[in-house]
Amino acid sequence: MNIPEPLNFIQEIIVNDLKTGKRTKVHTRFPPEPNGYIHIGHAKSICLNFGTALKFGGKTNLRFDDTNPTKEDVEYVDSIRDDVHWLGFDWENREYYASDYYDKLYEFAEELIKKGKAYVCELKGDEVSEYRGTLTEPGRPSPWRNRSVEENLDLFRRMRAGEFEEGSCFLRAKIDMAHPNMNMRDPAVYRIKKASHHRTGNKWCIYPMYDFAHPLSDWIEGITHSICTLEFEAHRPLYDWFLEALELPDRPQQIEFARLNLSYTVMSKRKLLELVQSKRVMGWDDPRMPTVCGLRRRGYTPSSIREFCERIGISKADSMVDINLLYFCIREELNKSAQRAMAVLDPLKVVIDNWEEGREEEVDVENNPENPNAGNRKVIFGREIYIEASDFMENPPKKYFRLKPDGEVRLKGAYFIKYVGVDKDASGNITQIHCTYDPATKGGDSPDGRKVKGTIHWVYAPKAVDAEVRLFDNLFTLENTGDIPEGKDPLDYLNPNSMIVKQAKLEPMLGKATLEDRYQFMRSGYFCLDSRDTQEGRLVFNRTVELKDSWGKAQAKA
Ligand code: ATP
Ligand code: MG
Fold this sequence. Notes:
With 558 residues, the protein is α/β, with parallel strands linked by helices. It has 13 helices and 27 strands. Helix 2 (40-55) crosses helix 11 and helix 7 packs across helix 8 (236-245). The model has no long low-confidence stretch (mean pLDDT 96). The structure holds adenosine-5'-triphosphate (ATP) and magnesium ion. The site of adenosine-5'-triphosphate has 14 residues, from helix 2 and strand 8.
């Protein structure tokens, strides 16, 4: 087989497995718990699982790890499905649920009991932890550890039949109460939970623990390489123990990699849920959220996220990825593909006094200088236009090359204009500026070689399209939200300026934008329509990313 390079360390393991004949195929799975929307960290895992199988001509299953009946929801199942597809991956007909295996898992549990490898324990919460010991001290055997197989089977069946209260007893594996790895000190296998499940309804009142359900679900599905994040490293001996205790052939292999941590954001589903529930953001798909649906609404493309996941790579050591790399990936892509447009975010009216009232003219502006085939478009121009308020200064510093008293600037694609005066209201605020234009400079070129340093964008006022434009910044002011002082919460570090809303004036073409379109608003960044709040008669644009590249610059310096 010809395997496309480069390979990460997990793919190296697989190459070796295929070479030595340990495996003849590659089968991975992405196993989300449907208790929240997936985020960019999950995207890393999705790209790794699906990407690896694709590389080796293998398969990937989508498995909902729905063993916790109380926190799960179909809303999440639907969103996860949608987001994985959107990212560009397909699990064909292999959509599974751990809950599909409840009957089979129950049989496995009975088998463990019959092999003398599991028992029903009646220790209560505090006692369980007390008996378990500590990292430095071995645990003690539960008084129920040596029950007979018959008694255990009977009790377990009665647990299933609903005869016992929640917390009164549980099934645990009989391993080693003195094991240096705490996960091996007779861990829980099944617990009583009188809760209805979103798929199995009230059929069950006992539910399998994750550490038991996961390896067995992997085995049932014929998974060869079970890729997960580092926090499961210490659970691997238990993963292997269950498979061995049940004497299952062709066991899947668990391999861990470092999870993605991204600066200036949070990656914990619990924290993300808190942001949503406390209404600090507009929802799971708020464009500031690191969720896949948030990034999508912000204007990210699937290819930019896959590119990001490729660039960050896979490693065995935890690290923090600079969020500017994510910005870099989408910027690079949009620079090549986005249609250029003119939009004025802080409008200031300019009247061109020597332009006849009512006269309109079309000027040519390029659609994308990065793409030789993109051509030009006609943009309407006339006597009254808007420019950015920051493109005029009454008392400018020395190196200010935009519009100023005695100054001349180029209006992109149109004419040179020269300052004449300002109108002010009673409190001294500028209401509009008066200029004159030079008819000989059409297209923005001067016939006499006259130098003009500044080129500014503009929008013809009478035909301008009104829109709400949202500018986003990092959601948190803290670079590493995983490292906060005692007594503080990440949410104490929310950036109060993470969203700034502008009432903007746009060139007419933008009134016909569709949800798929991506634009570069000249000099202000890349934008797309907001898929949720845009309606008939209300245009809302999101800034996907600024033009300024902090990541590329930092790399160049380093
Ligand atoms: P929970 O605390 O609810 O378990 P979780 O983030 O681990 O949260 P899961 O739904 O269990 O969520 O994760 C599904 C898969 O995605 C797992 O294999 C997990 O290892 C992987 N994953 C989760 N977060 C990250 C991350 N930040 N980087 C890489 N992979 C991740
Ligand atoms: Mg998890």
